[in-house]
Amino acid sequence: MNTATKLSGFALGLAAVFGAAYGIGQVGGPVAPAAEARHDGADAGHRAANGEQGGAADHRPGGLLVSDRGYTLEPLTAPAGQFAFRITGPDGRPVTRYDVAHDKLMHLIVARRDLSGFRHVHPELAADGTWRVTSPLAGPGVWRAFADFTPTGGEPLTLGVDVTVPGALEARPLPAPAASATVDGYTVTLAGAPQPGRTAELTLTVSRNGVPVTDLQPYLGAYGHLVALRQGDLAYLHVHPDGAPGDGRTPAGPGVTFFAEVPSAGTYRLFLDFRHGDAVHTAEFTVLAGAPSAAADASPPSEPAPAATSSPTAGAGHGAPGHGHE
Fold first, then answer.
1. What confidence score (pLDDT) does residue 88 get?
2. What is the pLDDT of residue 292?
3. C or N: which end of the chain has fewer Cβ atoms within 10 Å?
């Protein structure tokens, strides 16, 4: 999908905006209580089975820090319509070597602070360590930019920084929780609910015109890619898919299963990217973690909650500023 967005007046204020954003992200620090990072023995077994490291610090939600474990996200000035940044390492120098994760060296996710805008794009790396991409910031507001990457020789990290796009801001309330969403003629239903402090199974089922979609196309090494953001601080949660295309056991739809672990009760926004018909589509859900009825009520409502289309200029539904991926 083409995520190019021309932002009027953005270039003139870019240096000042990024400077302010860098400060905001740096001093904001972690919002989640330290206790949220602690889990029980069952979760420790799940992590061990998946080759993950133990320890509270390792399971702090991502994206709350601009600098972690010696690595720092540094926004840079860029020409109009461009977004540029770099990652500096423990030695203070730009990082130029990264490991591929989910088919890419870098995943850049941006979300407006009220969660009414979302983009998932993949910048290009220059030899000097600068990442560049067509600006994914679609409209005025404060956006949180997440850099999700694995430096060669290091551990996976997600760093975050606030970036402000000037202009008149229209606040948009978060849609009510619903187990069904529509996007680009597809209906996606959600079964399961996240549970604080333990791993929960979430299955998203894709249909079109009432017919189950059984020929999903691989996207980022799976039949779907799921991002979860916590309302308020926008804690970024890693959500792992079950299986992989070509493994001999994972069907190409209609259901795509993920395992999610949320650190606290509260409201979360889920963004599912899936590929079909040679195009990537994004379905969006509001979910409640820790609500007594959250796990029990998984039936679709009479009117599915709308989700943004794959077009960045879509005017219908939550997220009119533009949701997408690249």
1. 98
2. 57
3. C
* Residue that is written with structure tokens 């009520």 in the block: 297
pLDDT at position 324 is 54
Instruction: Give CA–CA dist 49/278, Å, rounded.
Output: 34
> Quick check: 113 and 144 in contact, CB under 8 A?
yes
Instruction: Retrieve residue 143's tokens.
Output: 């956006």
Return the closest-CA partner of residue 239 out of 287, 282, 271: 271
- So what's the pLDDT on residue 26? 33
CATH 2.60.40.10 intervals, the chain: 10-29+64-165, 180-311
Q: Nearest CA to 17 among 162, 164, 131, 145?
A: 164
Beta carbons of 255 and 286 less than 8 angstroms apart:
no
Class of domain 10-29+64-165: mainly beta
pLDDT single digits (tens) 96-111:
999 999 999 999 999 9
Tell me the whole-structure pTM to 2 decimals. Answer: 0.74
What is the rounded distance in angstroms from the CA atom of residue 25 to the CA atom of residue 284? 25
Type of residue found at 179: A
CATH assignment of 180-311, among 3.40.50.620, 2.10.50.10, 2.60.40.10, 2.30.40.10: 2.60.40.10
| Distance (Å, whole) CA 289 – CA 196 | 6
* b/e per residue 140-179 (b: at least 16 CB within 10 A): bbebbbbbbbbbeebeebbbbbbbbbeeebeebeebebbb
- Give the pLDDT confidence score for residue 46 in this predicted structure: 34
Sites in the chain below the pLDDT cut of 70: 1-59, 291-326
